[in-house]
User: Which sequence fits this backbone?
């Protein structure tokens, strides 16, 4: 039977924030009757979670959701207002850049001091010193005071110390975002080594690729409450739904309009999921339906319907017309309406896409009746992208010659 490395039960944390803060006695004397209203910020609300020994556990959520507050409660930096927190074994926190470092000391002194504080003996700290510095790639700067280090150098040194000690549980916050791309990849390699060694790791991150790559389980926090916990892929999708779902509603979808739409007009256009529900956010790989509604004011035979989809950079990533696909649209009388629908699997790369529906009079003439530029939008989210405009499913193999 597995044993829990971390147990969090009904933990709450509230911060009391004054609307007016006085830093000197003079300010208080000058404003003795000014209101000192206090606002309460409930950073954590009845949070419960169990992390098993040897588990790589991810915590995700938008900025201000309570992720870092939870880690600081686990590390003992904050005291929870209610509930219980238990950590089995030694703990190594890597939560905030520069915490535990003395800027007036050299890297050499800071490494030794912090390694000892994290549980190593003096002899062991000296024995591992070269390895710590080599991982951080700071051999040329070991006798330089930390106040002269860049933020990236701070990250490299702090991460190297935190992961080289023999802690049972590691708490790692989003501070890796400060490091350069090459060092981040190096850190990911270290994550894999720690995972293989059976260490318990709690990672707070906005990187859904890292969550799916390393985590055994993950948890989504929103406004201090646990929304979901479980499979990393499901949690990554839920995070993107919340994050991008909020952003897309702020988009202005009114675009330009072209053509003489007195004969026929596009009254609406939208995206649907496979259940027939209108959407403006969709995960990669999910079925997608592109729909427009047309109303006719004169008699038309075989009008041409089309869709164009462009990404944020304005590049056309998809375009189709009924005449190109050999689709006969039929004849329409004044007052009639029609629904034109395209079904496809959504393999667009993560991005915001804008839809331009169009109607032309008939096959061959291409006389534009109505073009609604960027009439609506869709945010596609996914947990990984190689850099293309689409992530088309494909097979790979490598054969030795």
Assistant:
């Amino acid at each position: 039977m597995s044993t829990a490395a971390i147990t969090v039960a009904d933990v709450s944390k509230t911060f009391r924030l004054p609307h007016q803060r006085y830093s000197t006695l003079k300010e208080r004397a000058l404003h003795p009757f000014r209101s000192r209203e206090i606002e309460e910020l409930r950073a954590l609300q009845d949070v419960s979670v169990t992390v098993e020994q040897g588990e790589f556990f991810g915590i995700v959520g938008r900025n201000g959701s309570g992720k870092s507050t939870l880690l600081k409660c686990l590390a003992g930096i904050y005291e929870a207002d209610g509930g219980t927190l238990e950590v089995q074994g030694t703990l190594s926190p890597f939560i905030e850049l520069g915490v535990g470092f003395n800027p007036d000391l050299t890297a050499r002194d800071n490494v030794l001091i912090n390694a000892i504080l994290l549980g190593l003996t003096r002899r062991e700290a000296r024995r591992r010193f070269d390895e710590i510095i080599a991982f951080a790639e700071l051999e040329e700067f070991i006798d330089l005071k930390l106040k002269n280090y860049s933020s990236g150098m701070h990250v490299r040194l702090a991460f190297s110390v935190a992961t080289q000690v023999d802690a049972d549980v590691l708490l790692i916050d989003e501070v890796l975002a400060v490091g350069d791309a090459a060092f981040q990849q190096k850190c990911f390699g270290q994550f894999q080594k720690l995972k293989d060694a059976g260490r318990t790791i709690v990672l707070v991150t906005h990187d859904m690729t890292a969550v799916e790559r390393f985590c055994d389980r993950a948890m989504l926090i929103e406004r201090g409450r646990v929304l979901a916990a479980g499979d990393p892929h499901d949690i990554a999708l839920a995070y993107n739904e919340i994050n991008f779902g909020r952003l897309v509603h702020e988009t202005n979808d009114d675009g330009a309009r072209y053509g003489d739409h007195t004969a026929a007009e596009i009254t609406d256009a939208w995206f649907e999921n496979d259940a027939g529900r209108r959407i403006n956010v969709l995960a990669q790989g999910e079925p997608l339906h592109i729909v427009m509604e047309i109303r006719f004011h004169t008699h038309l035979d075989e009008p041409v319907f089309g869709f164009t989809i462009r990404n944020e950079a304005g590049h056309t990533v998809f375009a189709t017309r009924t005449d190109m696909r050999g689709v006969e649209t039929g004849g329409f009388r004044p007052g009639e309406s029609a629904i034109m629908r395209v079904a496809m699997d959504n393999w667009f790369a993560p991005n915001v896409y804008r839809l331009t529906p169009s109607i032309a009079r008939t096959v061959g003439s291409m006389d534009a009746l109505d073009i609604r530029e960027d009439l609506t939008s869709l945010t596609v989210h996914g947990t990984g992208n190689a850099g293309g405009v689409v992530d088309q499913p494909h097979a790979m193999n490598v054969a030795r010659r």
User: Anything to note?
Assistant: The mean pLDDT is 85.
